[in-house]
Amino acid sequence: GFVSFGATVCFSSPTKKGKTNRSRGKLLLSVKKMKFNIFRSVLSRTSRADPRPHVKTKSLPVTESGIALVEQDVEDAGLRQSDTGRQQWDNPVEFLLSCISMSVGLGNVWRFPFTAYENGGGAFLIPYFMVLLLIGRPFYLLELSLGQFSSGGCVKIWDMCPPFKGIGYGQAFATFIVTSYYCVLIAISIHFLFSSFQTVLPWTICHEELKENTSLCLPSNQNISIFNMTDNNLTVVASTEQYFRQGVLKDKVDISSGIGLPDPALLGCLVLCWILLYLTLRKGVSSSGKVAYFTSIFPYSVMIALLVRGLTLPGSLDGVMFFFNPDWHRLYDPKVWYAAVTQSFFSLGIGFGCITTFSSYNKFNHNIYRDATIISVADTCTSALAGVITFSILGHLAHELDLPIEKVVKSGAGLAFISYPEVVSKFEIAPQLFAVLFFLMLITLGLGTATGFVNTVVTIICDDFPSISKSIVTAVVCLIGLLFGIVFTTPGGQAMLELVDYYGGSLLILIMAVAEIIVIAWVYKTSTIITDLNFMMKRNLGFFWKFCWSFLIPVSLSLILTYTLVFHKPVQYAHIDLPLPAQICGWILAMIGPLVTIIIMILTIARSDGWNRKFGGMFAPLMTWGPKDVVDRLEWMTFKHGDEEMPQISVNSS
């Protein structure tokens, strides 16, 4: 519950008298004919245990000296930002590392390599880096800044344009859907981790019980020359691919007859994954921030070791050349540009609401511009590093299997679990040790990103229902996520993962991102958001940012989305179209977000008072929009109104 917190600050003008609702601890500010509402709260138990001193009544003009006096009184009343009842990062470094841990995660190590592999290797890099520079980084800075400016998550920030609050809920739904299959990837890593303690790494040898009639298995450290190929209908697969697809997944390519039952071992690993997530998040950012020190730093040491070993393998340089040598004709394919956009969003976390949630726990004056630059550069470098490692292994496998690189393994989400274990097995000294370190790295990367995903959903629920314990909300979200993820532990789970990744992790995220940037740039207005961010950052954002936010990003994303919808092709797994019922389920997933947005907009219009509210003022920011700290808010309003004549401030004791 909210309580009266000891001081009421209001603007009053001759034309409209400010109203005060002290029972809910709100500050009503009326500037000329506009009302601004600031609400500040402390937990009722804190208020009873430590009553705030009263503030002496003052009346002073809104000037720099006046704000200084108000600031002193607010300090005396104990009403600084740390008393808002919202958690904050214990250290700014924890925020930076948490963002790096979330952005530089499996999106780089797992998703980037197979996306590049499917889209021509080097042909994918050019649009990918262009998208990162012109769309990814500006969008990333925008979402980070909005969260810090408003101290609100991906739903609360829509106080700036209330009818579109459904965008935040749509993003939260997409985030939850992605998390449900993302944790299965962590579960697969846990499965490989346990297998790494065996005397002989199981993916380095061929298993007779896993043999398929249409293929021959090639053990690690062997060459295709050991086979006397007389049957052209047989295909050769590496032992790593055999173990992953048949040993771990029990993979079923055709799901027209059903997806099968969950694999007990994989399901147990999934349960362990969600338990780890709960333990990380049950105390909020105070606990997840500490974990970020490990999850953001440890992976790089392992990846550098893999890079050195991968580049020393026979044929590895051919794979690296395939990665960096572009096929210029592929640049004319809009599908490649669509893949570049969705990968940059997935990699940086744009459109998921996670980075907005993380930055909402910052102090208002935190240097967010610097952090956005550091994170985006780290993300780009990590993607390039993961790509070099993966394609060096693909080059080596192509050398051993005597196949073109583009045909060496089946593409898809499992590519990382074929290429990386292969390079681990090449360590001549203690390969089990390097296997353990590598899969620990994958697990920490996955947990770092999943922590951000789950925290986004938990924050939205806690903001809407503050009376419920965050620990309880986290437990319920984790339990529901576990139940949703069971479908991906079945033999048809990888096919379902491809389906959900396309419709929920790519298409839905892109739709919500287009809606988000259009509303911010064209409804709330780019000029307004730049004024707000200039005040917060204490710097002037130049023409580049205005051009990207107001024109380049909304127009380019809209064109890419339009092309994707018009020339849509059914999702495939192993080059086989998924059944029609599965495709329909995918479209339902993709449409839930837009439908939620439309429904909330209609309800907002229906509940609005007066025709003017419905067709004009409906899109105006709520009184709660803006900095939550009292002094920051007063300074912000003075900054926005400049030299205009300002009314008086009354600071009254409650």
Topology:
Elements: E1 7-12, E2 26-31, E3 34-39, H1 44-49, E4 58-61, H2 64-76, H3 92-103, H4 106-118, H5 122-150, H6 166-195, E5 215-218, E6 235-238, H7 239-248, H8 264-281, H9 285-311, H10 316-324, H11 334-348, H12 354-359, H13 368-401, H14 416-424, H15 431-464, H16 470-485, H17 493-523, H18 526-537, H19 543-566, E7 572-573, E8 576-577, H20 580-607, H21 611-615, H22 630-641, E9 648-653
Parallel strand pairs: 5-6
Antiparallel strand pairs: 1-9, 2-3, 4-9, 7-8
Overall body shape = globular
How many runs of DSSP E, i.e. beta strands? Answer: 9
Question: Helix content range of the residues, please?
Answer: 55-70%
CA gyration radius, whole angstroms: 27 Å
Note the quaternary state here: single chain
Major pleated sheet: 3 strands, antiparallel
Low-confidence stretches: 1-83, 610-614, 643-654
List the total number of helices: 22
| Gap from first CA to last CA | 17 Å
- Major sheet: order of its strands? 1-9-4
Overall mean pLDDT: 79
Q: Structural class of the helix and strand makeup?
A: mainly alpha
Beta-strand share of residues: 5-15%
